[in-house]
Amino acid sequence: METGQVQCPEPNGFFPDAKRCDMYVECRDGVGTVQTCPDGLIVNEEAAKYRNPCEYPVNSDCGTRTLPRQFLFLTFLKVNLIKINLTIE
């Protein structure tokens, strides 16, 4: 889904949005277009810059970027499962 044009850090590649976890900039020949991942996917910052960066949340980490509302429960669940595993071991 195209949502606007921006400057590219490099002429070609995919680059995570600085604020939102489900958005990225797709650059082709120096022209940047802001894109949004399909529902259920977020941008994996570790993804190679020359492939589509959208992945399932289990394979990605938002870091300090804003997580889409649809994933807030999954984050809560993931954090609590980690706490449970730590107390069991």
How would you characterize this protein structure?
The chain has 89 residues and is of the alpha+beta class. It contains 1 helix and 6 strands. The strands form 2 sheets. Strands 1-4-3-2 form a 4-stranded antiparallel β-sheet, with no helix packed on it. The longest helix is centred in the last third of the chain and has 17 residues. The relative contact order is 0.18.
SSE string, helices as H and strands as E = EEEEEEH
Q: Bin the strand percentage.
A: 25-35%
Total helix count? 1
Query: Can you give the mean pLDDT?
Result: 76
Supply the helix-strand structural class.
Answer: alpha+beta
Multimerization status: single chain
Helical content stands at 10-25%
Question: Could you say which overall geometry the principal axes of the C-alpha atoms support?
Answer: globular
Q: Cα distance, first to last residue? A: 44 Å
Q: Can you tell me the CATH class? A: Mainly Beta
Biggest beta sheet summary: 4 strands, antiparallel
The number of strands is 6
CATH architecture: Beta Complex
Strand order of the largest sheet: 1-4-3-2
Counted up, domains total: 1
Radius of gyration: 15 Å
Structure, briefly:
By secondary structure, the chain is an alpha+beta fold. It contains one helix and six strands; from the N terminus they run ββββββα.
